[in-house]
Amino acid sequence: MIENTLVLIKPDAFDKKYTGRILTCYEENGLKIKALKLLKMTPELAAKHYAEHIGKDFYDELVGFMTSAPLVAMVLTGENAIAKVRALNGATNPEKAAAGTIRKEYAQSVQHNAVHASDGLESAAREIHIFFNETEIFD
Ligand code: RTP
Ligand code: MG
């Protein structure tokens, strides 16, 4: 099934100039960019995007980090894009991420872990529309 997914290159990886290498990884694995922008998250945007994590012990630190500096937001599309991108990203904690995954290569810690990707069809549809309107998404 062709799916769309919302991907963020988080402030740590953007600041370290890993954007090009991360985009190349996605493109070389059959994914296509449908939308792309640079932005700084606000606490309000973070609360929408991370609604499922509000109240967890890591939430305040997560929002502090995600709002600290610019990040890259994109919509990727392709066959099984949601699972494919999460496999390319690797485990949340880079210490547990498999060799060759983006988090193994480019992440420092469970918090500063380089990338985000939607975890299902419902979250993908919800997250895409937090960051992009229809005029910014191309086929
Ligand atoms: P993501 O949403 O970023 O693609 O990653 P994920 O599904 O693998 O991780 P999730 O459980 O959704 O957590 C969202 C982000 O919160 C930070 N986090 N910190 N124990 C902790 O300190 C902790 N747990 C999660 C990470 O930045 C994670 O990507
Ligand atoms: Mg998640």
Automatic annotation (TrEMBL):
Q: Which cofactor names does the annotation list?
A: Mg(2+)
Catalytic positions are 116 (pros-phosphohistidine intermediate)
Q: What is this protein called?
A: Nucleoside diphosphate kinase
Top-rank taxon, per record: Bacteria
GO MF terms listed in the record are: ATP binding; metal ion binding; nucleoside diphosphate kinase activity
**Which residues take part in binding ATP?**
10, 58, 86, 92, 103, 113
Q: Which residues form the Nucleoside diphosphate kinase-like domain?
A: 2-139
Its localization reads: Cytoplasm
Q: Which UniProt keywords apply?
A: ATP-binding, Cytoplasm, Kinase, Magnesium, Metal-binding, Nucleotide metabolism, Nucleotide-binding, Phosphoprotein, Transferase
Gene that encodes the chain: ndk
Per the UniProt record, which EC number(s) apply here? 2.7.4.6
Tell me the Gene Ontology biological-process terms attached to this UniProt entry. CTP biosynthetic process; GTP biosynthetic process; UTP biosynthetic process
SUPFAM superfamilies found in the cross-reference section: Nucleoside diphosphate kinase, NDK
What this chain does, per the entry, is described as: Major role in the synthesis of nucleoside triphosphates other than ATP. The ATP gamma phosphate is transferred to the NDP beta phosphate via a ping-pong mechanism, using a phosphorylated active-site intermediate.
Spell out the family assignment given in the record's similarity comment: Belongs to the NDK family.
Gene Ontology, cellular component aspect: cytoplasm
